[in-house]
Amino acid sequence: MKSGHFRAALTLPLFSVAAFVLVLIYLPARRFRWRLAGILQMVFHRLVLWTLGIRLHIHGRPATERPLFLAANHASWIDISAYSAVMPLSFVAKREVGTWPLIGFFARLQRSVFIDRTQRGATADQADNIGRRLADGDVIILFPEGTTSDGNQVLPFRSALFGAARTALDEAGIEAVFVQPVAIAYTHMLGLPLGRSGRSIVSWVGHQDLAPHAKDMLAASDFDVSIIFGEPIRFDHSADRKKVSQEAEAAVRRLLAAELRR
Questions:
Q1: For the chain, what is the mean pLDDT?
Q2: For 151-192, where are the alpha helices, taking DSSP H only?
Q3: Which of 80, 136, 144, 148 has the fewest Cβ atoms within 10 angstroms?
């Protein structure tokens, strides 16, 4: 038996039991908006990373200002647990994710905001929904690329949902929302640097089936992933969402490139 399969055979039963217990505690904590809910969310995702044999490295720090809107690159389904292991947050996800077995269940538990990218006319309403969540104090993370990349580059950002920041300004009656660029980089496997082709093992692009990719990840294991927080961008009433989107995209590109060169 390969070492990765042996590790999976040991860790999956432990993960299943621990996840079941965490969810039982999390449900009432989320309903009553206890601070414990955010802590349990982070513990769950750290458990996911441990099960997959992934070591997480954090550079920089999340902004303390609120409302906070994170703009990040997206390379793999593993990103979800990596970002969520750092701080309590909710994701903006495509509508189909909510229907996926198990993953959809956990996405709903995390209060993800589901959007329909096929309905262009609904973009403003979807941005308003995200903005209201920001105004309520939730930290929301957006993948403005709209899809996953190969982990070596950042795809062009779509600016439409950055309009959520303006809704948050109006809803909360505040002076500014903070948009923080964040990059994720898969850097090592078995202690050795991953090259451009090596990152294809981790990246989940196109129309790959999730189950085979997850199985391959469990078999491989022993990865290092870095999350790098950039400087927050102030979004006030005079801000232009397209310019803020471009600034965030440029920042994420710099953060990713610097980490991959490290």
A1: 90
A2: 164-172
A3: 136
